[in-house]
Amino acid sequence: MIEVEVKAKIGSFEEMEKRLEGLGAIKSKTEFQEDIYLASPIVDFAKTDEALRIRTTDNDTFITYKGPKLNDKAKTRKEIEMKIEDTAKAKGIFAEIGFKEVRTVRKNRQYYTYENFEISLDDVEGLDPYMEIEIAMDDNEDYTEAQNMIFKLFEKLDIAEGFETTSYMELLENLNSE
Question: What is the value of pTM for the model shown?
């Protein structure tokens, strides 16, 4: 699967909720997410622009691999995700083969659906409010049209700036290095 995603810093959740409702987006769920990012003992993910994480939500746990970005216009990349049963065992397996925990990102996320978009309002610990718009595609589909559709939706929501192609982990890392 290819994930095409763009995030933008927003002024307030309340204002964006009103805009989304005015557009006809449907609020589908709210959940807490904790993402534990891992560093490989053989590949420098910072250099290859990849990510491996263990995500725990209110109800489920997943291991997710995110490949390198396919371009710099959006965060477009291959994503492979697998549901697992036991976070502690997964962390133990990764530790045994040399993976290290590098950062934990915690956020409260409100999900909305609109047409074929998944929209989330993200309250990330340590960051300003953000909104992500995402489309999932098959590996063989052309992602450039999806990117254009996402930016058109941002326009409909009166968002023309504050776009970000880095992950929340990278944004938090950048704050710590300043």
Answer: 0.90
